Amino acid sequence: MNKKPFYKELYFQVLIGILAGIALGYFAPEFAVKFKPLGDAFIKLIAMIIGPIIFCTIVVGIAGMKDMRELGQVGGKALIYFFVMSFIALAFGLIWGHIVQPGIGFNVDPATLNTSSLTKYTDGAKNVNLTDFAMNIIPSTFAGAFSSGNVLAILLVSILFGCSLSVIGEKGKPVYNFIDSVSKVFFHNVHLISKLSSIGAFGAITYTIGAYGLQSLIPLAKFILGFYVLLILFVIIVYGIIAKICGVSLISYLRFIKEELLIILGTGSSSVVLPHIMEKLERLGCPKSVIALVVPSGYSFNLNGTNLYMTMAIIFIAQATNTDLSLTNQIILLVVAMLTSKGAAGVTGAAFVMLTSTLIVLPVVPVAGMVLILGIHRFVGTGLAIVNLIGNGIAAIVVSVWNKSFNRELMKKTLSEEL
Predict the structure, then answer these.
(1) CA distance 323 to 222
(2) Residue among 285, 266, 203 at smallest CA distance from 11
(3) 300 touches 150 (CB < 8 A)
(4) Is the pTM of this model over 0.70?
(5) 268 vs 112, 217, 275, 359, CA distance in Å?
(6) Phi and psi based region of residue 346 (left: phi greater than 0; alpha: psi -120 to 50; beta: remaining)
(7) pLDDT, tens digit, for every residue of 187-226?
(8) Which percentage of the chain shows pLDDT scores above 90?
(9) Which class for 64: exposed (0-12), middle (13-18), buried (19 or more C-beta within 10 A)?
């Protein structure tokens, strides 16, 4: 098999786009912000086909299961894993915040902060509760699930459709074959759109650097640096241990998804690589039925990067405003954050809304302190999105191994071909 020259590889093209975007954003910021539509257009192109891909993959995955008990087993194991990992991530961020102490020395009086810029987040947080969250999962119409772009609503209608198709049995075979064929068309669309990844990454990173400037990072350099070290440690320690238990090399896995990681680095969004990661996990040895359930639901329930950010940000705000957090308050904080991190799924600006919701429920730490980190959210958001993606891939592997359906021979073959 002839290997493509490195300059034709997608990861290399995306990397060049990112570097060119950073340079242009730094040296010509006023001109750079005009490239924002390139990044927005690329994200919209991918978002356009995410719904159909999730639907087709889940329906084919469920309808291909031997019985409905397998669906319950996969879903149950996934939820258990999601909640355990969420708690670990929240605790990890809390402990790291105490070690690094990024907010010490700020001595900010919350009463002096202008909170007008937080309105859209605080309003969204007040509206987030478990009842509304559950009701929003149910779309008004079948087509409404796709037009709304709510991943959980798409997940619901897909599971219902897949279960019904499975129960019908042989009579539903033509429908199954049709949806399976349609899924191949949509995945081919992904490959076509992916050729524009370098342009999308260039537009997004150019605008970010041009609009916010690298100088905006200086006042909070300790927080940003500490947060990225936290992300790296979490990936190496936690994901490394989990991967080792599953018999998978973390380094090989990260190398395998390097293109997706670079696309997120450029665009700042993990949603744009949802179709890519689902396809790659299947090539890695995870069954389609597991991928179909674990990965889309993980985008709402398995946000480990976001959880790390939440607790470290809260510790930062508490330290910056000289707010004392007792051990009891911190334990309550973990419990509340576990709930708010799930209840805000699918909300615009989810990470910030999750953080706001937690501070509103636990009013020990002033919500006004969020103004301190609002300006650098775009920069740290890229890092947490990368960790979220890595974590969802690991989750699919864990559930596949736990369900004794992981194809190790296919994994070895795929990774050896990559090398």
Answers:
(1) 19
(2) 266
(3) no
(4) yes
(5) 31, 16, 16, 25
(6) left
(7) 888 888 888 888 988 988 888 888 877 777 777 888 989 9
(8) 24
(9) middle
